[in-house]
Structures are given as C-alpha cells and as structure tokens.
C-alpha cells in the first residue's frame, strides 16, 4: 500500500472514530483498530490524535473550498454562483451533522483549538473568493462586507441542521434577496 493510501486509510479511520466518539474521547488505539493497523504503524503517519484531527480538518475544509471555487468559477448569474459556493460550505456542516449529530459542533467548530488555524484560513479564503465574485458584478460596492454578511448568514443556517431541506432552501432565498438588493441599489449602500 502506498504511503498516501495508508495516510488516507488512517484519516478515514480517524473520521469514523471522531464522528462516533467525539475528538476528546477518541484514542489512538481506536484509530489504529478502525484502520486495521497497529498503533506504532499509525504513528508512522501521524504524530498523535491532534495531528490526525488537524490533517482531517484540513482535508475536509480543502474539499469544501475546492467545491466552492468550482461553483464560483462557472458561468451563470452571480446569484447562482454564490448560492452554489455557499451550498458547498453548508454541505460540509450538513455532512458532519448527518454523520455525527452529537459531535458535529466539536469536529469543526470555530472555537476548537485543534483546527482554529484551518477554519480561519478557510473562512478567509471563502470571504475573499465570494468578495471577488461580488466585486466583479458590483464594482462600486463593499464586496468584502457583502461576503462577510453572506458567510455570517450561512453560519447561522449551520446552527440548526435537524431539517436537512430547510437550511438549503433558506440559503437560496437569502442569497436571492441579497443579490436583488445589490442589483436594486446599483451596488451602493443606502
């Protein structure tokens, strides 16, 4: 097995354990057992549970960011592109909630010390990407402020994912309202 495949196996096992037990209660023995490896074998690829968590968080956030970039870079209306990019962000939270309702907040919460840097970098990249898309369509607006508003709105929707359809429906409606407001105001705040 190649090293990258072995690391993926370990991170997949870590995801399973973290979603099952939470980060705090998961042990390296749990991860090794889930990966079908010895604990010393796992230590050849990750330093400790925290390292596994950081690498896993980075992979999840990078995947959501790549999906958001692909959505922003397509042709279509600003509304459609922003909606699809923010659905990628919301989709990550929905996946975590679906896989682990009891531990989703712990896994990628902004306040977790284990992934704070990764989450901050992800949020900055999302803000800059969304801001650039808004600025291209509405050059006379404070595009980064609009991006922050859209991200705050999306984070608010992530707070209650018990009804899986409602957050996506509300996201689409909210983006439509914000873009309509930009179009109506000509990009200028009133």
Q: Helices and strands in order, then pairings?
A:
Blueprint: H1 3-21, H2 28-35, H3 39-43, H4 49-72, H5 78-99, H6 104-108, H7 116-137, H8 143-157, H9 165-185
Walk me through this protein's architecture:
By secondary structure, the chain is mainly α. The chain has two domains: 1-46, Orthogonal Bundle (Arc Repressor Mutant, subunit A); 60-185, Tetracycline Repressor, domain 2. Helices cover 74% and strands 0% of the residues. It is built from nine helices and no strands. The protein has helices at 3-21, 28-35, 39-43, 49-72, 78-99, 104-108, 116-137, 143-157, 165-185. Helix 1 (3-21) crosses helix 2. The longest helix is centred in the N-terminal third of the chain and has 24 residues, at 49-72. The radius of gyration is 19 Å and the shape is elongated.
Oligomeric state as shown: single chain
Number of helices: 9
Structural class of the helix and strand makeup?
mainly alpha
Stated plainly, the CATH topology of the largest domain is called Tetracycline Repressor, domain 2
CATH fourth-tier homologous superfamily of the largest domain: Tetracycline Repressor, domain 2
Task: Give me the strand/helix succession.
Answer: HHHHHHHHH
- Radius of gyration, taken over Cα atoms and rounded to an integer in Å: 19 Å
Count of structural domains: 2
Q: Give the strand tally.
A: 0
Shape: elongated
Q: What is the average of the pLDDT values?
A: 92
Distance between the amino and carboxyl termini: 60 Å
Estimate the strand proportion: under 5%
Q: Main sheet, how many strands, which sense, barrel?
A: none
- Helix residue percentage: over 70%
């Amino acid at each position: 097995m190649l090293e990258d495949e072995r690391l993926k196996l370990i991170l997949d096992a870590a995801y399973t354990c973290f979603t099952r037990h939470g980060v705090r209660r998961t042990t390296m023995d749990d991860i090794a057992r889930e990966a079908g490896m010895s604990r010393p074998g796992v230590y050849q690829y990750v330093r400790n549970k925290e390292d596994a968590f950081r690498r896993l968080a980075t992979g999840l956030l990078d995947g959501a960011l790549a999906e958001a970039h692909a959505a922003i870079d397509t042709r279509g209306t600003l509304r459609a592109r922003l909606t699809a990019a923010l659905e990628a962000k919301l989709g990550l939270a929905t996946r975590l909630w679906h896989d682990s309702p009891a531990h989703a907040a712990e896994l990628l919460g902004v306040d977790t010390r284990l992934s704070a840097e990764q989450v901050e970098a992800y949020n900055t990249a999302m803000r800059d990407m969304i801001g650039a898309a808004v600025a291209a369509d509405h050059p006379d607006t404070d595009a980064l402020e609009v991006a922050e508003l859209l991200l705050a709105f999306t984070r608010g929707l992530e707070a209650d994912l018990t009804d899986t359809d409602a957050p996506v429906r509300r996201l689409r409606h909210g983006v439509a309202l914000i873009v309509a407001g930009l179009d109506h105001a000509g990009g200028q705040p009133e």
